[in-house]
Each structure stands twice: as C-alpha cells, then as structure tokens.
Fold each of these.
Amino acid sequence: MSAAPTPPGSALPGDTLQPPKLLLGLVAASAVAHGGLAVVGGAVWAQVLSAVLCAAGLVAVALLIARPVPHVVLGVAVLGMLGVASFLGVLGAALATGGHPVSGWIGPWGIAAVIADSSVVRIAAAVLRRAENAGRGRP
C-alpha cells in the first residue's frame, strides 16, 4: 500500500521555510537575555538552567540560519515554551520559599527573557501555520 501522492507546492517536513528575520532576532535576544540571567540569576541551579537555555538558544539561531525546516522552527517554538515555563517555575520557587534566591529573574533580564520567549513561540507558530497553509494551496 503506497502513500498518496503529494500535491505540487506542498510543504513537506524537509522543505526549507522562509522564517522572518524577526524570529531569528527574537531567538538571539532570548539567548542573550538567558545569558544575562545566567550571570545574575542568584541560585546556582537557576544560573545553570539559564545557561542551558542560552546555549540552546544559540544552537537554535545557528540551525535557523543553516537549515530553516519545519522541524527546526517547531524546535524553536518548544524552546520558547521551555523558556516561559522556566521563568514561571523559578518565580514559583521563589514565592514558595519566601526568600529571594532567584531575585535576578524578576529583574530586567528575566522580564526580557520571558517577553522574548513568548514572542518566539508566537512568531514560530505563525511561520508554521503559514507553511501549512501554503502547502494546502491557500494564501
């Protein structure tokens, strides 16, 4: 049993996309913000978490430049979601302990990171939606 033929012009998982430069800039800004958090993050575990997110962001920037396929754009969206979840998790940990072990996350670096991460998710979802609509023949 063979698969149905793919209509011409459809967006296959291996097809390269044309993500806007805004997405690339937001991912880079997110990586920089997480790098800043790794320096001022307070608790060691929060600094390590932010350093990992910074490194992953830099890898995502390189992948977006080298091969902007749907899998990479989806990975960027997931990375943005993890960044937002890390901010909320660290904020929850700080509130639960009653102390300020991660006070840097509530400062400018943390706010910049969560805004950039949430914007990355939004723009990456729009890029994937546009590619899916183009594959169906819709404008």
Amino acid sequence: MTDGSKPWDAALVRRWLERRQAASRLDQAAADRRGYEARDDFDKAAAEEWVCRALATADCVNDQAAFAARLKQLVAQDEFPATGLHDDIRFERHVRTYLRRLVKMTKANEGFEKTLRHQ
C-alpha cells in the first residue's frame, strides 16, 4: 500500500524560495528595461521577491504548520512596506495573491519541487 502524503521537506522549501527570489529579481530587471508598459510586471515580480524574502530567512520553514501560520499572519497584515514601486495598491494585491498561492502549496505540500525560473 502506498502512502500519498509526503513529509515536509524544509530544505526543498528554502531552495524553492531562494530560486523564486532570484527569478523575481531577474523579472524585475527585465520589466524595468521594457519601460512604462511593463509596470505591472515589475510590481508583480517585486511582490514575489518581497514574499520570498520575508519567508526565506524565517525559522517557520522548518515546520509545515508553523509555515502555514506565518503565511496566515502575512495575509492578515494591512501593509507591505516596499520602495521603488510603480503602484502600491497593485503591489499589495500581487503580494496577497502570491501569499494565497503559497498557502495552497503549503496545505497540499506540493509544487515546491518545481524550481525552474518560469512557472
């Protein structure tokens, strides 16, 4: 009989967060080079980097329940301080969207193995 659930792998989650953070920096640079029409792409990549940076260094990554609780705290947060953005409201919307995506990934414990730059 096979067990469908797999154990929480903190190292895999940390690696995924680090790679997504690096990819988001590259996406921000590409959007910045494209100029005015890519402002939304820049803010979206900045939101992804903000979330990954906020979670990558946290000790909560070691435990699935603690990681889910930290995500819930971040979703409930009113403001997400960041500089160099084009539109703060759009940035905050993208942060919340990315956090909800991570909540789903954490609950299902899947998706962290996908470490390619483009997802």
Amino acid sequence: MAEDWIVLDVAERRKNWWVVGYFTTICVAVAVAVAVSAGSGVLWWVFSIAGAWIMAIGYIINRGYGRTLVTPEGIFTFNGVLGGKVIRWADVVDIEKRHHTARSSSWWDLRVTVTSGSSLAIPGAFTSKLNDEKFDAKLALLHQYWRQANR
C-alpha cells in the first residue's frame, strides 16, 4: 500500500475559518461589554478574554490545518506549530469514531488508542455531520491500513 493523507478539504477548512470568525466576534463583544461597564478589574477581564481567545484560536487553526500521513509503517501526525507524533501500527490498540457534545453543538473526531492507554486525536479528521461520507472514508482508511499491518 502507498501513503495516504488525511486532511480537511477546502470547504471544510473554509467552514473552520467561519468558526474562527464567530468565536472572535463573541470574544470581542464580551471584551467590549466588560470594558464599557464600570468597575474595578476591567483590564484583568479583557486580558483574560484575550488569553482565552488566543488559546482557542490556536486550537481551531491547528484543527483545521493539522494533517495525518498514513503509511504501512504507521501514522505520522502533523499539528503545525504544536509539532507531531509518530504512532507505529504495532502500538495501536483501537481506532474509533468519538462523539463530543457541548451546549449548542456536537462533533465527531477520530481517536487512536495506543498500548500505553492514551488516546490521541487524528488531525485532519473531524466533522459536525451525523453521517459524513468523507469522515467515514477516513475512518475506513485507517482501519484498512491497521488490518494490513496486522497480517
């Protein structure tokens, strides 16, 4: 088997940038509301909101531009500025589609459980759709490589 990349396509990355825009708008609105309100500690709140925004934007951008190289030897993840990991197929215990929920949204991602028991997210594979064919194809690709490596 040759190498395959797991990445978000252009439409999925564009949607990710819309999330950045919405989140930024909310953070700016909250920061302005706090700054306009009278009271002590306003500057502390504005810097706290800005810090939370920076961490969240880093996560969202890495989620959108992270990618994974799948080879017969293993999985190589690339998370942009956060670095990457190498996972050999011999260390893989399980590959699963995991569902997450928040107050107003839900999403799925792919996670690899390794022999140490830790669970690692696969960059380039997440969706907010219940039945997403592209997402399911990425899961099937990982299972196919894993089965081939265990023969």
